[in-house]
Amino acid sequence: MYCYSQQCVLNNLVLKHISIAYRQLFSKHSFGFVYITSVLGVIGLAIGIASLIIISCLSDGFSNLVNSKLSSIDGHIRITSYYNDNLEIDDAQKIIKLLNTNTNIKSSHLFTENYAMIKSKNFSDGVIVYGCSDSALTNIFNLNDFVIAGSLENLDENSAILGSQVAENFDLKIGDDFFLFNIEDIIHHNKINALKLNLSTIINTDFSEYDRLLAFIPLDLSQDYFLNSGNNNGVISSVFAPFEIEEVEAEVFEALNGFPVYITTWKDRHGSILSWLNIYDIPIKLIMLFIVLVSIFNLTITIWMLSFEKNSEYSILKTLGFTRNEIRNIILSQSLILSVLGSIIGSLLAFILLLGQHFYHWISLSSEIYFMNYLPVSFNPIYFLIYPFIGFMITIINTFIPAYKISNYPPASVLMYE
């Protein structure tokens, strides 16, 4: 069956141009210089694109995991009294009811936060004690994601949860007893009141400061031990979109306009770390982008060299009836083939390496420095599309210059020297 439509003729011409371009680049009859140069150009672009995709996915994975841990370990929004550390219980309950009407807020609870001294055997050290309900342990602090020993179920009124480094420093195991001392009572009232607790759960967040300082006890016990009756430290909430906390904060501020309260978000409390993440992230991606640009321009130079190397062949094609546009299309087809091959190989290489890092954790980290024990991966399809597309477009645009020049050379002026 024959096709005589204009579209079919156009498709045949495109396939013919691509076929000629491919034979010139990779035919076994091609000169070794042409073949090796073509392969090296493809490899260079593939490595550049793979590097940029890998760095971007690893950088996003690192930032996302740090942000996720920072936003989950101690609540997304905290509301405390503007004048002192305590909120009246009635005010706190009214605030919780108002927060529950906001569809962006997942959960809200009363909480206490106090400095205390922990003592076991002959050792003592300072800790930060959170008092909260059982539901707040999972809905606010997400401790179920960090449990390494014990359980969050069946907690009794004297149960306590400690960070892994606290438990290790005091050589405490699940079921061991220890004592807690109210520092305020010791300093301001010269009163020593020991609270005996039983270790029920050990958590590990990979944040050394948290694992070294955090302790959780039941809310009622904390109120009785640290606070005057009728008072509470504040309200703590979690939201559905913690990375968009600014919008929720504005809504909460407007809703609580009549209350003398102070509102802080997880981004406010960890501003220095977030600034560090932004500072480190941008330069790395810029450096990798420059590396990709270098590989793209190397590929462009390769195409220029190949085009001028094949100048005599193009002149012969002109004498056989090929037009200037067809010669130009053949040269552009070479650029198309090399850039597409480099982009596909680079994307596949990046995907394989990222998949290996995701499952096998080839690159490990020190949790004391980086808050995690391996480099996480965030697979973003945009990177696998936009970076190859940018490389492809820059290569094609740069190829127009040699394509235009060579297509306009008179065949006689080229062949007379052959």
Outline the structure in words.
With 418 residues, the chain is an alpha+beta fold. It folds into two domains: 32-68 and 274-415, no CATH class; 84-259, no CATH class. The protein is built from 16 helices and twelve strands. The strands form two sheets. A six-stranded mixed barrel has the order 3-4-9-6-8-7. Strands 2-10 form a two-stranded antiparallel ribbon. Strand 3 and strand 4 (123-132) form a beta hairpin. Helix 11 packs antiparallel against helix 13 (324-360).
Which class do the helix and strand fractions yield? alpha+beta
Count of separate DSSP helical elements:
16
Oligomer: single chain
The value of Rg in angstroms is 33 Å
**Order of strands across the main sheet:** 3-4-9-6-8-7
Q: Main β-sheet, in a few words?
A: 6 strands, mixed, barrel
Count of the domains: 2
How would you describe this structure in keywords?
alpha+beta; single chain; six-stranded mixed β-barrel; 418 residues
Summarize the topology.
Elements: H1 6-26, H2 32-73, E1 77-81, E2 87-88, H3 89-100, E3 105-120, E4 123-132, H4 134-139, E5 147-150, E6 159-163, H5 164-169, E7 177-182, H6 183-188, E8 194-203, H7 208-213, E9 214-218, H8 219-226, E10 231-232, E11 234-239, H9 245-255, E12 261-265, H10 266-269, H11 271-309, H12 311-319, H13 324-360, H14 367-370, H15 381-407, H16 411-415
Parallel strand pairs: 4-9, 6-8
Antiparallel strand pairs: 1-11, 1-12, 2-10, 3-4, 3-7, 3-11, 5-8, 6-9, 7-8
Helix pairs in contact: 1-13, 2-11, 2-13, 2-15, 11-13, 11-15, 13-15
